[in-house]
Design brief:
Elements (H helix, E strand, L loop, with lengths): L4 E4 L6 E3 L4 E3 L3 E5 L4 E3 L2 E4 L1 E5 L2 E3 L2 E4 L4 E3 L3 E3 L3 E5 L4 E3 L3 E3 L5 E13 L11 E11 L3 E3 L3 E10 L4 E6 L5 E2 L4 E4 L3 E6 L2
Parallel strand pairs: 1-4, 2-5, 3-6, 4-7, 5-8, 6-9, 7-10, 8-11, 9-12, 10-13, 11-14, 12-15, 13-15, 15-16, 16-18, 17-19, 18-20, 18-21, 19-22
Length: 191
């Protein structure tokens, strides 16, 4: 559509974007659900705001505005979330569905903010983050590779740790400067 796209599911109803479908808006995209939110088709708009626990098996992108996941996110297929000129914000946890999913987040002219834990219930296979500034509010636990291409990594929570399983992956922070009131702990563990 040329303008905004707003959808609120009634009661405990679901918001579903089928794999063969997509939402493409010239304005803001706002999706709200107190039930399930299944994003199997692509979602694109000037900005994208999702409120409600979401399952993502596709791509979400914006050109000028922010992408905001206001609730927990489960990655259910290799997915990319990107904003060309805005920020990407995850206010809830980010988990994998089966542990085989790869996840890429891009905000090359903005910030990526993970307010809560990545991988507290089920670890992603890998995660790649490309941004000017990465803000981490909690732990990052991934089974495989962690690739962070950022100028700065800011720890906003009470502790900072990034871990991957031994023999399964690598942690690459490139040349990012790490800042925060707590120390960053980087580990490879056996499970």
């Amino acid at each position: 559509t040329a303008g905004e796209f707003n959808m609120t599911a009634p009661g405990d109803g679901a918001v579903v974007v089928a794999g063969t479908g997509s939402i493409q808006a010239g304005g803001a995209v706002t999706l709200n659900s107190s039930g399930a939110m299944d994003l199997n088709g692509h979602v694109a708009g000037d900005s994208v705001s999702l409120t409600g626990a979401a399952t993502l098996a596709s791509n979400v992108r914006t050109i000028n505005g922010d992408v905001t996941f206001a609730s927990n996110l489960t990655v259910d297929g290799s997915s990319i979330v990107s904003s060309a000129n805005g920020n990407v914000v995850f206010l809830g946890t980010v988990n994998a569905s089966a542990g085989t999913e790869t996840f890429e987040v891009n905000a090359n002219n903005g910030q990526v903010f993970f307010d809560s834990t990545i991988g507290n219930a089920a670890r992603l296979r890998s995660i790649t983050v490309n941004t000017d500034d990465l803000k981490l509010g909690a732990r990052v636990d991934v089974d495989g590779d962690i690739d962070i291409n950022a100028k700065t990594i800011t720890l906003t929570g009470s502790s900072g740790s990034i871990s991957t399983l031994a023999n399964s992956g690598k942690i690459d922070l490139a040349s990012a400067a790490v800042d925060g009131a707590v120390a960053l702990l980087i580990t490879t563990d056996s499970g």
